Amino acid sequence: MRFVKTTGAAAFAAALAAAVVACGSSGSAGSAGSGAASTESATAVATESEGTPKDGGSLTFALNAGWDTLDPAVSAFTFARQIMLFMFDPLLRHDPKTGKIVPGLAKSYDVSADGKTITLELPPGVKFHDGTDCDADAVVASLERVTDPDLKSPWASLLAPVDRISADGATTIKITLKGPSAPFLDALTQVNLAPVSPTAVKQEGKDFGAHPVGTGPFKFSEQTAGQSVTVVRNPDYAWPAPFHDATGPAHLDKITVRDVAEDATRMSLLKTGEIDIAYQALASQLSALKANPKFRVLLAPRSGMPRSLVLNTKLFPFSDPKLREAITYAIDKQQIVDTAWGGAGSVAGSVLTPGMPGFSSAVAEAAPKRDVAKAKQILAAAGWTPGSGGVLTKDGKKLSFSFVTQPGTTFQLEGQLLQAQLKEVGIDLKIASKEQAAVLADLQGGKAPFTDMLFAATDPDVMYTVLATDSIGKAWNGASYSNPEMDDLLTRARTEIDPDKRAALYEQAQKIVARDNPYVPFYNISVPYATTARVHGLEFDGQAFWDGYSAWVD
Amino acid sequence: MAAYAIRRLGLSAIVVVGVSIAVFMMLRLVPGDPVSVMLSQGSTAQDAAALKHELGLDRSVFAQYERYAGNALTGDLGTSIRLHEPVARLIGQRLPATLELTVASLALATALGVLFGTLSAVRHGRLTDHLVRVGSLAGVSLPSFWLGLMLILLFGVELGVLPIAGRDGLASLVLPAVTLAMVPLGIITRMVRSSVLDALREDYIRTARAKGLGAARTLFGHALRNSLIPLVTVVGVQFGTLLGGAIIVETVFAWPGVGSLLIDAVSARDFPLVQGIILMIALGFVLVNLAVDLLYAVLDPRIRDSMETAS
To answer: Which of A155, B148, B288, B304 lies at a C-alpha separation of 20 to 30 Å from B21?
Structure first.
């Protein structure tokens, strides 16, 4: 986190309004996406489990940003999802080991042959923390609550494919879709659609988020505004998701989640043992922490679209596809990942992260490696000739443009590396630092010629969000890329239920991205978690979150 | 005196309205909007244009301000765009923490500032004086985020005697309050030093000493008392600086106050929340300065007399 220093009492109001921070960590766009019954999706996982789990003890976990409400249907915050995962059970889950969609609270699920009916089966005897039965009616009510127009849930769109939801007996839920929807199962893995206690919803009304009641392994205990949330073990928990391969309640007595935005402060808290887990450990401290036996560093890969350069296909100079191609040879991805991002993660080659359903390893492996001569050759063939100061020119115009990025060491370093790398091929790159909100607005409006973004998701439908013509200006097609062939593939992939056929559509789409280069993926990110040595059993999902069930401390 | 108070109150109201307009317009001129930040958090399929309409952001700035001002007059500061809670409630939750921090800092800065400043003036030109002057310059110059992190490393990590972050009892107040107090401490020290020095050169001091008054009574009863007026002004102004400084200090120490709330609100372009917090800060600043102006009159009969003549 970086500050624009505010000084002077006289202009204090102006200074306050301009005081900014930019989270150098989680970066730009992040989304939950939506998913499919996948054949494979190895959202590989950093797990650390040695020895026999012990019951008891408590643990403090510091995030690098805050949360809004803890009402799953209402919260729009990424980190609220992490906290809610302790208290609520999503109906389906992604297996942390394989990334596949597996049963969650629902002990089994079935998709009809036509892909239009999904049947979920609850285990018997599930109870909310307030003692209310979590039966089929409660699940139906929870899902219908999300689509209640009065609630204005940001997650209502996840249920857009749904025609009807009904309870069939005490433990069976039938969801009828308007048509086959491949991403819908992934939607059911979102904690935002997890069952909430109908009794508590009725009692608390709009304040449900301040007193959340779910079925999860931990119960809400208390919250201090802007500071912390504490959850305690649910002693009656007997319905862990089958992939946990365990029975009974969680190991920990208590988990305290704190909001510590300042990176250096969070790392200091870890060193004194005031916290046990630091989310997003400082890249510059990773190697020292790894070398110290008192700490551990766990890398939790975050699936979706890798961090990618955005080459705006409608703006100078990237309206010329040859220039976009030249960039793919001009940049040194490995150097950027190692130097700017502390090597946490791997170099990306395709617009989907490895392990995502439909990820094409062929496309990833064929991605261009740095080749300055080739980049120069492509540029020369496109009519660019060296001008004054070694900068390429064409028709009197210099090959000079800005990289729009955020303040913060990591982003600045990334910009400087790109600047140096592109200079070698005769491109004059300027760095335009803007605050995060401004970068996001530029991305969404397709106003930045050259920037970078990532998109967290667990379903390949994320490609629709960043590449479909329909997503320009509305969603996150920051490259303003428009190609009917791509639109057709991505639309068909949404309704293709057969996982293999669906993967084939995405393979083709990834090939087109690699040919047209509206995005140049360079970094499959991993969230670095630093923990004290007493922490064990953290299992991360594709969103780099953990549900607390398997965690234990010495 | 009453007429003076009323006039000052009227001027204060104009300042607050002015600030509210300036902040409202500035927020909308700065690049970035709440909708793209909200959408970046995950609800992907939501339509940006629809969301803008729902939030009323597609109307003209003037129409938006009219609506905001109308509601604000009835005490309704609106609802936070991203936290979905009434702005007044959010500020109410966080204000005690910020007040605790700023009042503690100001008390610390004033007490130590008067002590060091007086000491320095009395020991004019000697080692104590030099040390105090260098110290106060350092206090004013050190960036608070750097100082805060250094204090964390020293007292939290190395010595392990004080809590590093969060608001949990009196001990947790020490580091953030000391960090925040540094700038006003430096300013108050220097101000007290020079005004005590000036006072010590006055004729009435010589008279007091000539009449046989002890050094201590001369200092406390005469010199220091006459230095109080500029002190009150400086302390009043510093209150505003502290509210600004709290933004950084609260973030460094994960202190759950209005400052850290404001940082998040600005970066998310949460217009109603930013407006509400700035309005509250402006109001606090204006009220403190109003109190300071009125306090002058109480402290200094000359000002009181001139006011009465003027009105």
So the answer is: B288
